[in-house]
Amino acid sequence: MTERQHFEISDLDSGISLGKDAWIRLRKNRLAVGGLVILVFFFVIALLTPWIAPYDYEIQDLDLGATGPSLKHWLGTDIFGRDLLTQIMYGGRISLSVGFLATIVALVIGVTWGSIAGYIGGRTDAVMMRLVDILYALPFMIFIILLMVVFGRNMLLLFLAIGAVEWLTMARIMRGQVQTLRQQEFVEAAVAMGLSRSMILIRHIVPNAVGPIIVYTTLTIPGVMLLEAFLSFLGLGIQPPKTSWGLLIAYGAETMEEYPWLLLFPGFFLATTLFSLNFLGDGLRDALDVRSAKD
Predict the structure, then answer these.
(1) How many whole angstroms separate alpha carbon 163 and alpha carbon 98?
(2) pLDDT tens, position by position, 66-80
(3) Which of 37, 100, 216, 278 is the most buried (most CB within 10 A)?
(4) DSSP character string of 283-294
């Protein structure tokens, strides 16, 4: 018996589940763990912002104006005399909310669409996926901008508009996963037992595709946050008195020559969040890949 065979048998004897095995491999990825720690820290700060922010969100000191970092204002103040750290903390609540809630919308649409197309197949699959191809060809940035102009700028519309754009790739990924899984023996057994198509999808197929769904989620959130930042930069996203990291970066870009900290600090927090999400996504992809677990 080789050393590798002995290792695999010992794993089976100890009853290590796939989830536990994935967690063990994820912990070995320092970048992924570091990204997870940073994201948890940012989420905790975002949740506690109303209670731990150093200053009131609406406090302005026009006489103070824009000042650099100091003991009183750690990250400086903006042109209205508002504490930049407070603005970043409140802006993080908006940016993270948009990123995660819009991604949830995209996942719900994409997983549902891709599952139905992949499992039913035939003409239904062909029509549904050709529609996806047509939607891919549309200039969605212009579509979102038109929505924001026609229906107004509000948080709910922003969630729905961005989510309605980002679901197409998830639909394709889910379709491929379902087409592979529906050939498996456990699905054939469920069909033989007389379970309905919807029950087979919900109870058997979708749970077995949760790995790619999780990975794609961590890779979609950065794209959504960048899209929100771009819309805010154009003046079509979050509107004052509310703020987001994208809006702060837009203000900072206008005054970067005189007050560079107004751009550097919001940009740093946005970039750190995006890198953390990408590192975590790469780590989850490797941890949930069954083939890599056998290497």
Answers:
(1) 9
(2) 788 888 888 888 888
(3) 216
(4) HHHHHH-HHHHH
